[in-house]
Design a protein that fits this description.
Elements (H helix, E strand, L loop, with lengths): L5 E5 L3 H10 L4 E5 L2 H11 L3 E5 L10 H13 L4 E6 L4 H9 L4 E4 L4 H28 L13 H13 L6 E4 L6 H10 L8 E5 L5 H9 E2 L11 E2 L1 H4 L4 E5 L6 H13 L1 E2 L8 E2 L3 E6 L3 H7 L4 H7 L2 E4 L9 H17 L5 E2 L1 H9 L5 H15 L4 E2 L1 H4 L12 H19 L4 H8 L3 H10 L5
Parallel strand pairs: 1-2, 1-3, 3-4, 4-5, 6-13, 6-14, 7-10, 10-13, 15-16
Antiparallel strand pairs: 8-9, 11-12
Helix pairs in contact: 2-3, 10-12, 13-15, 14-17, 17-18, 18-19
The site of adenosine-5'-triphosphate (ATP) has 17 residues, from helix 7 and helix 15.
Length: 450
């Protein structure tokens, strides 16, 4: 891996190509004489900056091939800074190229010094833009999908899936351990669907006694049972035009499963004590931490209901399976709770961050939030320490082998150094006592993101 920036020169005149090749210092020069070669070089070297002669074969005296090359390059890699050459009297085409997304132009015959300045500036701006994008991604890790915060690719993939299925009126089943954010995802799905203007109604089927669950879901007519003093619509009706989130669907007892199935098949419900079916247009999103497929095999969950509910199944990884999310969430939650409860606290001490990265988080984000809340209250100084978080040493079972043990220490230490240096690679490499290229290599080989 090399840090030398790559400059791609697209020029069909061999003499000019040579002249340009020698004119630049400090860059790795790659040349191309045709559109095909230029695209191949773009794919292979990903140059930050390209100089492009608009007069390429088969149209060396016109600009059509040059414009086609420009468009294709920008479509493939929009952040590339492309500097087009404008021949005598071809200022118009240069301006047109800029309108199409070229970064700048230079006049022919070439004034090498002027071109060198344009190229240097293009590299500089490219670096700044890349850095800005990186910082922006860090500061606003999620586009606020349901208020979820995440930095990991694992969670980004989940959000992408949910975003994609949101507009379709299919039933979605979210599978994940407690506290992984299932309800937030369901809410995000609702907000991103055409039903977003309707109500989002959530019910936790495990938290309601069996005897009351039917009435909660389907409602009841006045006098249907002792205590039914007035007609009350259930949650399914309350969510008409919107979304009903059935959390812990695995806890719905079998008799009620039959009634739910009928609603899903026929889109009508009957309140308890009611005589007429009521049509309802409610989308169902359900969630569980249980193994529903196994419950189907055991006969504890109806197979036909399972398939009605699980048109799309989305698995949500636990917090421990989402590299980088725990420290990101810890910082965000700390800011939130410090503002509300203890303004003196401004951040997490390095030992606290290390403990957060090492902990397995059996209770996932909910546990993290509880611990941060507690720590913010307990903290004496400006920084929350590991002791404030009250995390015992995580279990240390014997790893697979020495290589995997080393790798896991490497990963943890690198993440810790990145967290402490706010993602700055130079800072992290200093903390780790390795060179920047070494750290880049490690990030790449462990598939971590700097
Ligand atoms: N990625 C996230 N970003 C911000 N907050 C989160 C995230 N994931 C979870 N939370 C917060 O953690 C808590 C638990 O999340 P949520 O209720 O969505 O989890 P759940 O999977 O539905 O849990 P359960 O099955 O136990 O109800 C909530 O306070 C939620 O706001």
């Amino acid at each position: 891996m090399t840090d030398t920036p790559v400059l791609l020169i697209v020029e069909d005149d061999a003499a000019l190509q040579r002249q340009l090749r020698w004119a630049f210092e400090g860059y790795r020069i790659v040349t191309a004489a045709t559109r095909a070669e230029a695209i191949e070089a773009l794919r292979l070297h990903e140059p930050a900056v390209v100089t492009l002669d608009l007069g390429l074969p088969p149209d060396p005296d016109g600009t059509s091939e040059g414009f086609a090359t420009l468009a294709e390059m920008l479509a493939l890699k929009p952040d590339t800074k492309i500097i087009v050459a404008s021949g005598h009297g071809a200022r118009e085409s240069a301006l047109q190229a800029i309108a199409l997304g070229a970064w700048d132009f230079y006049a022919k015959p070439i004034d090498i010094d002027a071109l060198a300045l344009i190229v240097a500036r293009a590299f500089h701006v490219h670096t700044l833009e890349a850095e800005n994008r990186r910082l922006a991604a860090r500061a606003a890790p999620a586009a606020g999908f349901g208020g979820l915060l995440y930095a990991s690719d694992e969670m980004a993939a989940v959000v992408r899936t949910v975003e994609r299925v949101a507009p379709a009126d299919v039933s979605v089943m979210l599978l994940g351990a407690s506290g992984t954010g299932k309800e937030l995802l369901a809410r995000g799905l609702h907000d991103h669907s055409p039903r977003g203007r309707g109500a989002f109604v959530a019910i936790n089927c495990a938290a309601i006694p069996e005897t009351l669950l039917e009435s909660e879901l389907f409602g009841h007519e006045k006098g249907a049972f002792t205590g039914a003093v007035k007609t009350t619509p259930g949650k399914i009706e309350q969510a008409v035009g919107g979304t009903l989130f059935l959390d812990e669907i695995g806890d719905v007892p079998l008799p009620l499963q039959v009634k739910l199935l009928r609603f899903l098949q026929e889109r009508v419900i009957e309140r308890i004590g009611g005589r007429k079916p009521i049509p309802v247009d409610t989308r169902i999103v359900c969630a569980t931490h249980q193994d529903l497929a196994a419950m189907v095999v055991d006969g504890r969950f109806r197979e036909d209901l399972y398939y009605r509910l699980a048109e799309i199944v989305v698995r949500i990884p636990s917090l421990a399976e989402r590299p980088g999310d725990a420290s990101l969430l810890a910082r965000a939650l700390l800011r939130r709770h410090a503002e509300a409860m203890n303004l003196a606290v401004t951040g997490l001490a390095p030992d606290a961050l290390a403990a957060i990265e090492a902990w397995r988080w059996p209770g996932n984000v909910r546990e993290l939030e509880n611990r941060i809340k507690r720590a913010v209250i307990m903290a004496d100084g400006k920084l929350v320490t590991a002791a404030d978080l009250d995390l015992a040493d995580p279990d240390v079972a014997l790893p697979l082998n020495l290589r995997s043990a080393r790798e896991s220490v490497d990963r943890r230490t690198i993440r810790q150094a990145l967290a402490q240096s706010d993602g700055n690679i130079s800072g992290a490499s200093r903390l780790l006592g390795v060179s920047r290229p070494t750290l880049y290599d490690l990030l790449k080989s462990y598939d971590l993101h700097g």
